[in-house]
Amino acid sequence: LRREFANDARELLERMLTAVDDALEDKTSPAEALNTIRRNAHSLKGLSGNFGFELTATIAHRLEDFVAHDTQLTATLGSDVETFTDSMTKLVEAGSEPTGEQAERLLERLPDAPPPLYLDSPVLTVQVLVSTPSRVLAQTLRTTLKNCGYRVLRATAGVECFDVAMQSRPN
Asked: Radius of gyration (Cα) for the chain, nearest Å?
């Protein structure tokens, strides 16, 4: 099963990297490339969680959140996506995941989404976990907290909230 997971995960990661390359080489539209990245990050999050690769699932979730409000894939965004995919590729290739402080350091090295241009708020190193089944409320809280410079993680309920909290260690 681990080999099957690794093969499927590599394919999803490769699709994301190909989308970046294709957009930067004008082979596909930047908007379509971004949609491909979103779809594959979402699929990888579910696949990783199902096979017990919780840190990989957490990174895929962070990538989803990172690109959630973008409309076009730019060179800078493509570079950031590659940082996420490189981290996940290393975990998949290793066949195991670090825990504790090693996992925290890996998560801290991931890019932070910049605050909106109209704000002068600094990006804080404080992570906040928002847990609510309401998508509207979660989006409102996420936007408000991000506009204040916080890094925001989201979980919908119970077990997912616990898993995200254990992997990400929000403040």
From this structure: 16
